[in-house]
Amino acid sequence: MDGFGGTTLRIDLATGEIRRSPTDPTLAREWMGARGFVSKILYDEVPRGADPLDPENLFIVATGVLTGSFCPVGSKLGFGCISPATNGHADSSMGGHLGPELKYAGYDLIIFENVSPEPTYLYIDDDTVELRPAADYWGAGSLKLEERMKKDLGEDFQIATIGPAGENGIVFSCISHDFGRQAGRCGVGAVMGSKKVKAIAARGTKALPAHDLKAMTDLTYDIIQRTKTHPNMEPWQKYGTAFFVGWSNERGCFPARNFQETQFEHWDKIDGERLVEECLVTHKACFGCWMNCGKYSRARVPGKPETYQEGPEYETIALVGGSCALESIHEVAYANHLLDDVGMDTMSGGSTIAFAMECFERGIITKDDLEGHELRWGNIDDFEHFVGMVAERRGIGDTFARGTKGAAEILGRGTIDFASQAKGMEFSGYDTRWYPAQLLSYCTCDIGAHHSKSWTITTDIELGRDTIDGKAPVVIYLQHIRPLFDTWSCCRLFWGELDVSPEEHVETINHLTGWGITLDDCMKVSEKIWNLNRAHFLERNGGPGRRHDVAPARHLDEPVPSGPAEGKKVGRENFEAMLDDYYANRGWDADGNPTREVLEDLGIGYAADSLEKRDLLGKPIPGGIPKVRGQRLKPKAM
Amino acid sequence: MRPGLWPVASGPAARDEGASDVELLLRSGGKLRDHLRPDVDQYTRRVEVDDGLTLRQILKVLDIPEGLVAFAFADGKLRRLDYRPGDGDVVTLQPPVSGG
User: Fold this and answer.
1) Mean pLDDT over residues A44-64, rounded?
2) Burial label, B52 (beta-carbon count in 10 A; 0-12, 13-18, 19+)
3) Which residues of B fall within a CB distance of 8 Å from A637?
């Protein structure tokens, strides 16, 4: 099959049986890869009552149609499971080199079933596929283990690992690769750990079959030449995403002290300029990329060991730096290293620690809960001690190992009001009180709050930050086009920042596969995935859907105390009105449940049947569903 | 005539008497390109401005929303919007990363 490695692996961890089968061409064509594969397989196979950390959950490693291609840039690899953070569909992707390596070894999709009796790791060397003992590796930090495995197996193996957090079921555990690339979100590392899989190591030396290699090469060459001289390339190469801190702070959307404030007074001590001037060791790129947006850094914090890590990038600076009020880029980089090595997502991890800091500030937790330590804003020693408590689930650390929502449910006392999360996953690094479309994006996102699926800060600026009008269709449009890059498994930045159009990506897919598809076809696949994930979430968590699309009280009711967004809040009435608009534009009913008409239009009528059996199907819409769901905008950076 | 800046095409006659001016090339892509309205190539616009204006002032008279400019980049360095470009500068306007 052109464009694919050709083989799917299904691994029963309980028995050690490894089954190979040809990758299903219908699955490939209709779901396109990573996020799409995960959506369909989880929906079809995971029992609705299975706990995310039960053996019945699946752990899926999935490449996409563009993984391993040079379409800018096919570096991505997807991971999927039912999320322990949200109890819904989880897909999380990472850059680096492992995805292409798997595909060059011939594998598009790896599905892990059940639980291994002993710690294990998956070893792939082209046609050799083995489960190998990993008892010696169990307990090791992610970064340290990757270095060790490179020595054990050889530098040319690409390796993904989990840290102690993943082994201990912390719901915001990540999977780490290439010394700093993570599949960070949704707790995919906890599910990998629940199956006793410590690592995946792969080497692939084969080639991908292409439908029209010359046409694909010509197009790629044109894109490379064009983007190399694009005016925005050099700043990207120099600063990566960290440059964004100053802008975000000036616009009043930079989270400070657990989203209490939207500006951080020490922003200029932790921004991209400081990172490059004080910490940069070298620029770092994913497979096949000529942008090098990764920043490999050295942290020097007095009294601490010198550390090396990739980053921090914007999200880590926002949620570990601003939100925990760290005042030095070295401390942020050091904290980045701590979380990477222990195997926690820096976004949800940073947010959960910031939430705990606010609990400490309010006296909800005390030194008695913290083994005699404090948990003060901006204190790296307190931060480090608390990370250890959470990773090892010691004392109150066990409470916060469940994330902000899980912790708030145990702590009570109104803590849920300042837990900045949706569906159990923490917000990305943007405050929403002056950015209503971003709040809608977070709260309707199919994996829990994540900017990657819909980022609307500039849309809010362009359409007006004080209005909700016209926001819902844009959010829906973005929720379709942005996750397409996760489904295709290529980097989104060349689209958003360097003017490589989605149509050019589709043209590459056609040269690679011979499918002859259009961008509209792809958008429909993306909408199908979104709706199937919604149906799956409702089947697992009950309805109505509106009950789950809930915003934290802080972002609805609590005015921003100072700065350019002073006095701003979204308000409950506005939020509910946006939800009304959102559901109507999606063709869902007023309760937020998908309707049969829209599911059948997307070719997933079986989901309507399943919802109907559970009394979760949306009521028919008077006058019918919109013909096109989500505003059709000229595909540009959003 | 808007104060402080003239598109090259409007010519010197439109300028204030005695005002010195600098010629700049402003460059950008992505979301900013529609606002920049390039006229040199697909990413570049040539403008002449009064000497001493900040980038923030230049954006204002060009009707480019400053909220859509994350920072500027000139002479290999990051520049904030209070930067005052000099004659012959090539200034890249960097749009916000689409989400970090």
Assistant:
1) 98
2) middle
3) 30-31, 95, 98
